[in-house]
Amino acid sequence: MHTTEANLVRIDQRTCPLCNVPLDLTNPNACTKCDWVFDTEQRSPNAGFRDRVAVCLSVIPGLGHMYKGHRLLGALLMLGSGFALFACVVAATASAGWGLLLLPLYWAGVMMHVYWLDDRALHHHTRG
Fold first, then answer.
1. What residues form DSSP beta bridges with 37?
2. How far apart are CA 85 and CA 122, in angstroms?
3. Which entry of 26, 46, 78, 104 is 20 to 30 Å from 38 by CA?
4. pTM above 0.90, yes or no
5. Distance CA 8, CA 95 (A)
């Protein structure tokens, strides 16, 4: 009975990590003020490594997405890189070469997207 009371006190003092408002005892895994929800899905220890590998593969836009199991999106980004290159060349002719700076922005956007994208390939390998 003593441990139950100690657990209730500890849960009662629990606050939201984002807005520091006390959480409801009936649902301590969600905040009603800022819509914070406790993430119950556990990430694999290899998730960070696979994210970094996907970013490195994204030097060829879309290849990192394919590595993480998003094949259609990866193919569309590969196709889109051709259009992005064409648009940068057109913009470069109209802006004395400054339009070529758009291509690294496209690459950086693709790399950032693949870093934060969920890893479908990892989930398929670990589940069964």
1. 30
2. 31
3. 46
4. no
5. 66
